[in-house]
Amino acid sequence: MQTLYDKHHCTLCPRECGADRTTSVGVCGAGDDVRIAKTMLHRFEEPPISGTRGSGAIFFCGCNLRCGYCQNAAISHGQAAGAHYTVAQLADSMLALQASGAHNINLVTAAHYLPQVVQALQSVKPHLSVPVVYNSSGYEKATALRLLDGLVDIYLPDFKYLDASAARRYSAAADYPTVAMAAIEEMLRQTGEYREKDGLAVRGTVIRHLVLPGLSADGAAIMRTVARQFPAARVSIMRQYTPSFNRTGDRALDRKVTALEYNRVVDAAIACGLTGFTQERDSATDIYTPDFT
Q1: 249-274 confidence digits (pLDDT tens)
Q2: Rounded to an integer, what distance in angstroms lies between the CA atom of residue 270 and that of residue 276?
Q3: Which pLDDT belongs to residue 73?
Q4: DSSP class of residue 80?
Q5: Tell me, what's the pLDDT at 2?
Q6: Hey, is 203 helix, strand or coil?
Q7: What pLDDT score was predicted for residue 285?
Q8: What's the pLDDT at 283?
Q9: What b-and-e string marks burial along 231-262, b requiring 16 or more CB atoms within 10 Å of the CB?
Q10: Tens of pLDDT along 216-243?
Q11: What is the spatial distance between Cα 112 and Cα 140, in angstroms, rounded to a whole number?
Q12: Strands 276-278, 234-238: parallel, antiparallel or unpaired by DSSP?
């Protein structure tokens, strides 16, 4: 753990920004204390994750990827949002969500707090009767993810780009494609084939792709890559991109995804024999973003 996370010189994530997180924050916006914006029963994940009662979501503050169109920008880019949690309090929040009826414990964008998350899971895992979901941007070191082996049951990573220029333009991470490929490979190594029981996900990896305006060809290429490299996974093809969240300055993102663009990605997935989840046209709205105030 120490070789991956030196709080005085952080190299935990692919940015390797070297921040002293005891006195400042890293590129992720996080210091050395865990900040959580919200814990809730979240009903807007994929059906086998949300189920009938909701997923036990823990929304962590900060993010190392900095996407310019993030729908959770209030907490991912915001420095002041959230409350301080100790490792013990984080573990307690997982148990509280389970007690409230959550179908799973859903850790949303926790990569920059991985050492504390591992400690909390190690203490609480024997007391959980529901799966642990690790909800990720995909921009994570495979070596760091190995710390979660045996602690996470379901991985829910994004696979945002194969096009390095788009990754650089919209997320300031030209290395995103290679980093995400290695991360997803490690996730699948840990979880194996996707499995459900009684309509709920219990094990495996679901790879998400948000279709962006003008990037449907890249999305179709991602589906072909998943079919070739990660056939044990399911895919979730999202059409919830909402122009009002665009802060990139690129006017190409000032519109919704067209039906033609979205269907191009879905058709590629079907042609490759992939199975998974799609979204309705009316998902492109901000009403599905939790209130973080």
Answers
A1: 999 999 999 999 999 999 999 999 99
A2: 10
A3: 87
A4: S
A5: 44
A6: strand
A7: 57
A8: 62
A9: eebbbbbbbbbbeebbeeeeeebeebbeeebb
A10: 999 999 999 999 999 999 999 999 999 9
A11: 9
A12: parallel
CB 33 within 8 A of CB 7: no
Residue at token pair 């907490």: 75
75's CB contacts (< 8 A; 6+ apart) are 37, 38, 59, 60, 61, 62, 81, 82, 292
Which of 127, 147, 131, 109 lies closest to 56, judged by CA? 131
End-to-end CA distance of the chain: 34
The whole-angstrom distance between residue 219's C-alpha and the CA centroid of its chain comes to 17
Domains of the chain by range and CATH? 5-288 (3.20.20.70)
Helices 114-124 & 87-99 angle (0-180, nearest 10): 50
pTM over 0.85: yes
Cα–Cα dist 244/292, whole Å: 17
Residue at token pair 């190299």: 11
* Token pair for 173: 């991470």
Which residue type sits at 247? R
